[in-house]
Amino acid sequence: MSEVKKILFVDDDESIISGIKLTVGRKFEVSTSTSVTEALEIFKSEGPFAVVVSDFQMPVMNGADFLQKIRETDLEVVTMLLTGAANFEEISDAVHHGRIFRLLGKPCSKEKMVGHLDAALAQYRMIRAEKDLLEETLNGALRALSAILAASKPLFFGRAQRVKNMSFDLAKQLKINDPWRLELASTFTYLGHVGLPDSVQKDVYDQNDLSKEVQEIISGFPEFISSVLGEIPRLDEIPTIIRHIDDDYNSQVLDKTGILKLASILRFSQEYDVLAASGRSNKKIFEVLSDRQRKFLPGVLDAFLELYDFSEEADTIDVVHPSEFLTGMEINQDLYLPDETLIAPKGTIVEQHFMRIIDNYYATYHGGNPFPEKVQVILRKKK
User: Fold this and answer.
1) Which of 113, 207, 255, 269 could bridge 167 with an S-S bond, Cβ 3.0-4.6 Å?
2) How far apart are CA 134 and CA 115, in angstroms?
3) Of the candidate ranges 2-6, 75-79, 86-90, the one whose mean pLDDT is the lowest
4) How far apart are CA 43 and CA 79, in angstroms?
């Protein structure tokens, strides 16, 4: 991702905006507005912005409230507030509670403003670096956990892998904040399935009719996941996302943190995977999802169509020896050992850790080949 350096200035005084353009506008990438209403639209349509600077005395809403709304949209953006000496004390509480980076007095010289903007951009880079490090750490731990779980419960964690990949793509296409939460939720939503008896796993996976006892077990999974993740910092939202996966999306419900959007994206990806695993054609899957689209986040089906080539000709089907698996291939049949141990269900996406598992079986298995000589695979095409 390219470095974000854009700065948004908001002041209802046209002369100040003109001065900003003529001075700091020559050194920084600056957008301006004389209205908080217009500025909110600019922030959404022309972002992302690294820094937002607003005057305090503004029509419609004051600058502190405006910057609070900006931070509700983007928690990473660095905000600064301009104010005259007369109301300096009046807004000190707003600065403290609104997590405003700096309070700037008016008038502010070019040299001081440049210094403040340099500091704000440095603060933004630090915030981004810390977040990137956190995401890399979480993703690394998640990949390791997924590999372990996929080896022990290939049915459900093979699905988790596919749901994670599709959900992440859709979130990026829809410009959803913090898509790393989707990666965690898509894996942990199946954590409770580790304890399912082998005798019912296939019925649960295929979403067949289940006994009352099995339904009660499954209904307790969100609470179990919450107890596992509840004590881990910054993961408290993941159980909440999982609890809302089965809910129809309602745009009338306040969703400041985006949890309901993420849950709806996960639901869409899960329903697609269930339909694909059932052997339905691309055309039929599209028809079913179109009929259900009112249950999902608006725009998710359009995002899906923009990302994936859904024509019948889009997929390439081939037959290969397991030693010829390549990353990105989708296994188009259940892969068993001779003793009928399931290694990978139909629909498993081949990744590096899976190829290592295959190599390990070839190296250690005695009594012939552990896998069929030929396995059907699909190469799915993205746009």
Assistant:
1) 269
2) 29
3) 86-90
4) 13
The DSSP annotation for 15-63 comes to HHHHHHHHTGGGTS-EEEES-HHHHHHHHHHH---SEEEEESS-SSS-H
Q: What's the CATH number for 7-126? A: 3.40.50.2300
Label residue 66 exposed, middle or buried (CB < 10 Å: 0-12, 13-18, 19+): buried
The bridge status of strand 78-83 relative to strand 316-320 is: unpaired
Q: How far is CA 287 from CA 274, 293, 377, in A?
A: 14, 10, 24
Pick 315-383's CATH classification: 3.90.105, 1.10.287, 3.30.450, 3.30.70: 3.90.105
Torsion over CA of 22, 28, 31 and 33, rounded to 10 degrees? -50
Q: How many whole angstroms separate alpha carbon 119 and alpha carbon 115?
A: 6
Rounded to 5°, angle at Cα 264 from 262 and 265: 65
For the segment 309-326, the average pLDDT, to the nearest whole number, is: 80
Indicate if the pLDDT at residue 36 is higher than 90.
yes
The topology under which CATH files domain 159-312 is Hypothetical protein af1432 (1.10.3210)
| pLDDT over 90 percentage in the chain | 37
Amino acid at residue number 310: F
Answer yes or no: is pLDDT of 152 > 80.
no
Rounded to whole angstroms, how far apart are CA atoms 156 and 6?
43
Q: Which two tokens stand for residue 246?
A: 């089965």
What are 76's two structure tokens? Answer: 């990473």
CA dist., res. 364 & res. 336, Å (int)? 16
Can you read off the two tokens belonging to residue 90?
Answer: 């009046």
Using alpha carbons only, what angle is made at residue 186 by residues 316 and 43, rounded to the nearest 5 degrees?
A: 95
Identity of the amino acid at 255:
D
Averaged pLDDT for residues 178-182: 80
Specify the 3-state DSSP secondary structure of 317.
Answer: strand
Give the Cα separation of 274 and 193 in Å (integer). 16
Q: Residues near 3 by Cβ (< 8 Å), separated by ≥ 6?
A: 125
In 3-state terms, what secondary structure has residue 160? helix
Amino acid at 109: S
- How do the domains of the chain map onto residue ranges? 7-126, 159-312, 315-383
